[in-house]
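Dear colleague,

Thank you for sharing your sequence with our group. We've completed the structure prediction you requested, and as agreed, I am returning the results in plain text so they can be pasted directly into your records. Please verify that the sequence below matches your submission; if there's any discrepancy, let me know and we will rerun it promptly.
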Amino acid sequence: MLREIDESKNDGTYLKQLARIMKHTVLILDDFGLEEFSVSSSMALLELLEDRHRRKPTIIISQLPIPHSFA
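Please find the predicted structure tokens below.
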């Protein structure tokens, strides 16, 4: 999803892409945080979560390895 959002910034469909995601009743982000985010992806995710805050549910699921969980 974040790759699609990044690509949409380049082709001019960024706002349309965010609106498409906002239409979903529930957003589930699975395997969250397993890879590093680019600055652009981080900002897009923050904007998306801010837009959804107190409007629609967002579920974030992560399976970080045990050594990383306690760091």
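Summary note from our side: The first helix runs from residue 2 to 11.

Kind regards,
the structure core
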